[in-house]
Amino acid sequence: MITNHEAFDAFKRALETGHTADFLNKVTDDFHFFVPLPLEGWNQKQQGRERFEELIRFERSVFQMRLTPLIELENESYGMVVFSAEGLLNGKPFRNELTVVFEFEKDRIRSFREYVGMPLKNYENP
User: Fold this and answer.
1) How confident is the model at residue 119, as a pLDDT?
2) CA angle 63–10–35, rounded 5-degree value
3) pTM for this one?
4) Structural domain boundaries of the chain?
């Protein structure tokens, strides 16, 4: 069974470095996710590995961040991590909290949903 910690570490690595293989090796075939981006095409359910890779490429083009776990919780079906995110957003320093809730199916990540602590207005005016 995958643990929240393994899922978080793989997710963290993808956001910080752009390397998605470890995370994508842990997802189900029907993997999907939701992210709080106020942009056309991103403001609904996202499906699949390729779309996750697109998300990481997009986020890394806007963000350069370091993630620090603050809280990790899990049971057999769900895992949640709250972490501090800090770095640069469109070249300007930012600091925020991000919560990610993972849904597990056996030994795989079926989905995740992100919740962000502040409005992401900076996406609208890069």
Assistant:
1) 54
2) 50
3) 0.87
4) 4-123
